[in-house]
Amino acid sequence: MSVTSSRAFTSKYSNDEITVTCDPCRFSGKNSAALKYCKDCGGHFCMYCAKLHLKASPTKKHTLITLIEENETKKPTGKTRKTCQEHGAKLTKYCESHEVLCCNVCVLASHKECIKVTSLKEIADRNVVFRMCKDLESAIKRLQNKFEALHAEKQDYIKSVEQQTEALVINVNMYRKTIDGILNKLEREAIRRKDEFCKERTDTVNGQIKTCKTAITILDEAYKQVDTTLKESNADMFVNAKTVQNVVNKYSEVLSKIEPSEKEGLRFVPDLNIEKYLGGLEALGEVLVEKYSAVRKDNSPSIASSRRSTSENRKPNFTADINVKMKSDKKTCFITGATFLYDGRLVLADDTNKCVKLFGPDFKPVCSIITATSPRDVTTISHHEVAATLPAEKLIQMLRIGPKEIVKLRGLLLDIECYGITYHMPDLYVTSGWSAEREIQIINPDGELRKKIRLSKSIFRYPLYISIDPKAEVMYVSDYLNGVLVLDMTGKVIMQCKDADKGSYYKGVEVTVPGQVYACQWQDNGITRVHTDGRGLETVLSWDKMDRRKPLAIAYTSKTKRLVVSFCGEKRDLMSIYKFY
């Protein structure tokens, strides 16, 4: 077998490259590659030292092989290397001080001062090693599972970044359209002022032109009359002359009242402040990284304090109507539930078409999934998971939301006809709706009942929709007849907001920002703000009853500060979008 001239060799049974140095050269301060291995004394030698080793009397009968031959003849029986990576010698010792395996060379070179350097035969008790191997297997499996979970998490992160990037581009385009809309409005106003000026001037001049034409015609007739008067009698001539004189006097007066047209230059003077402001901007907006973390509970939540932290003048402004009917729909839509995902996409529960729908951040339809029975409400659990209530089955259907698909996950079976639903980490809060139970059930993600909140009939008649203020730790429940109920997280009633002088019916309820709550008043065709400081309800949106829009479900996204409202009546295929400025 030929001798390799490389300073390193590669094992057939490992991808690791092992550099072996000559033992005598290393002890003398040199760094020569070892090419030979002594099977008798376990030493490594360069070609020169190998010859000296065979010439010496005590070692002349030793057997030397090349390192490659050593590697081939000593085939490993397991996956673990049994030779020292630094010196290539057999591992024979264990240093308890440093917790490392050593060869004889390691002991002499690096572990002379160590107190506990034990032979492997002495320390390797089979029972102990067996338990150690079992513990290692468990530790490896746990570590492997963690890496697999981390791998899946990182893949989800990449997908989330891609989805959020697409959503961000859509939001930039939508904001650009908003800016374009403002500029178009300013342009229309400038054109309107131009048209108003031109109309005023042209109407005046056109009237003067008409007067001039009339005067020319009448004066032409008067001229002809004077010409023919010369042939008549003196008396007739005098009468005609006086008549024509009156005409001349009249139009002389008219002419004096018509002012000469001044030469006017019409030009556009731009508002340079707009150009100056826009030119000073570097971008349409900032790209911020929001880190999502568990909601931190305050020790002493206060509704009033959270309300004071928001603007009292925030009111929703109409943006547009969107059509929520998809090509697969066979009936008129009836959107009874809505929720926004964190990336701005919209998920809807369509009662009549028995499906859950997904719309993009631009409110364009993406996909839908059929449910066995009619869904009633829907809530967001995570970036990619929502939950929908199916009252007829007494079931909460968990759904995974992908980029372009919705996938059914597990179903949580309840003992009530679940209606409204919301998520407050880590539990689901479900109302009983029209059923006789009149309660709120708190369910964990595995479907286990954590708690039931039951109140008297005067409070809970038909609890329909529910929303939670995560900062104030307060529940808002819309009862069809009893108004909007404010409860703490234990179920204690804090207050009841209801228009006592109106026969209103209450449907969807939503917390937009901490302390600001909006509810649908179905009978009054309006959206009311729920004031938690005792002022009661304030109507902020209303529709003419002739428009036949009865607000039903409501949802808000803090990402774009948009509020969407669904309707029953004749506008069931439409949802209205409002924005807070």
UniProtKB/TrEMBL annotation:
Domain of life from the UniProt record: Eukaryota
Q: Which residues form the B box-type domain?
A: 17-67
Which Gene3D superfamilies does the protein's record reference? Classic Zinc Finger, TolB, C-terminal domain
Which spans of this chain does the record mark as coiled coil?
A: 133-160
InterPro entries cross-referenced by the UniProt entry? 6-blade_b-propeller_TolB-like (IPR011042), TRIM45/56/19-like (IPR047153), Znf_B-box (IPR000315)
Q: Does the keyword Zinc-finger apply?
A: yes
Instruction: Kindly give the SUPFAM superfamilies that the UniProt entry links to this protein.
Output: B-box zinc-binding domain, NHL repeat
Q: Keywords in UniProt for this one? A: Coiled coil, Metal-binding, Zinc, Zinc-finger
Gene Ontology terms, MF aspect: zinc ion binding
Name assigned to this protein: B box-type domain-containing protein
Give the organism, scientific name: Dreissena polymorpha (Zebra mussel)
